[in-house]
Design a protein that fits this description.
Layout lengths: L5 E12 L8 E10 L5 E12 L2 E11 L2 H11 L3 E9 L2 E6 L4 E18 L9 E6 L2 E6 L1 E15 L13 E12 L3 E3 L11
Parallel strand pairs: 4-5
Antiparallel strand pairs: 1-2, 1-11, 2-3, 3-4, 5-6, 6-7, 7-10, 8-9, 9-12, 10-11
Length: 201
C-alpha cells in the first residue's frame, strides 16, 4: 500500500517551452527518483496549463514511468495519467520508448553551468504549484511542496515522433536539478466535477 503523502528525492532536468508554431507553452521534465515510497524509478512528464473548475492550473498532460507501482499509485492517489515507459540512459543522453517499443523521444542533456542555487516551491503562488488532474471520479487538486538546487543546463531533442509537444522545438530555458525533495500530499477532490478540460489558454 502506498497512499499519500509521498516524499520523493532525486535529480532531473526541466525544459521550459514557450508558445509557438501553433503549440502551447509547457514544460518537459526528466526525473530520476533515488527514493520514494515505491522505490527508485525514472519518469518523464509534460506539464501544461489546464482549465479546471477552479481556474487555470498546471496539469500533467502526459507522463511515463518505469515502475508499475508508481503507475498504479500515481493514478489512484492523484489521478495522474501515468503510462509505462522504457528508459535507455547513456552518458549525456536518454531514449524513451512506450510499452509497445515505439520511440517516444531521444535527446541529449548535460553541460550544467554555474553554481547550483537553492530553490523552493514555497516561493511560488499556491495556484502555480497546485496540480489539477481530471479523474474518473472528478477533479483532484494537489498542492506540491518541494525544495532543491537548480542551475542552468542544456537539453536538445534529437527525435520525438511520440512527443509532438516537443518535436522540432527549442526550449526557452533549461534547468538542471542536481538534487531535490518533493512532497505530494493528499489531494483535494471535487466528486461533483466530472468534466474533462475544455480547452487551453
Amino acid at each position: 500500500m502506498s497512499p499519500p503523502p509521498w516524499t520523493l528525492r532525486g535529480s532531473g532536468v526541466i525544459a521550459l517551452y514557450g508558445p509557438g508554431g501553433g503549440r502551447r507553452p509547457g514544460a518537459l521534465m526528466l526525473v530520476r527518483y533515488a527514493s520514494s515510497p515505491v522505490g527508485r524509478y525514472d519518469e518523464w512528464l509534460w506539464l501544461a496549463p489546464t482549465r479546471s473548475p477552479r481556474g487555470w492550473r498546471p496539469g500533467i498532460r502526459r507522463i511515463g514511468v518505469n515502475s508499475p507501482a508508481s503507475l498504479e499509485w500515481g493514478r489512484r492517489n492523484w489521478a495522474i495519467p501515468k503510462e509505462l515507459t522504457a528508459f535507455a540512459w547513456a552518458p549525456g543522453s536518454v531514449e524513451l520508448r512506450d510499452a509497445g517499443g515505439a520511440l517516444l523521444a531521444r535527446g541529449r542533456f548535460g553541460g550544467m553551468l554555474g553554481a547550483a542555487l537553492p530553490c523552493s516551491l514555497a516561493g511560488l503562488p499556491r495556484s502555480w504549484r497546485t496540480l489539477a488532474q481530471p479523474g474518473d471520479r472528478g477533479w483532484r487538486w494537489t498542492t506540491v511542496q518541494g525544495e532543491g538546487r537548480v542551475r542552468l543546463a542544456r537539453w536538445q531533442v534529437e527525435a520525438a515522433p511520440g512527443l509532438p509537444e516537443v518535436e522540432g522545438r527549442v526550449p526557452w530555458l533549461v534547468l538542471g536539478v542536481p538534487e531535490f525533495r518533493l512532497v505530494f500530499p493528499c489531494p483535494e477532490s471535487d466528486l461533483a466535477a466530472e468534466q474533462a478540460p475544455t480547452g487551453h489558454p
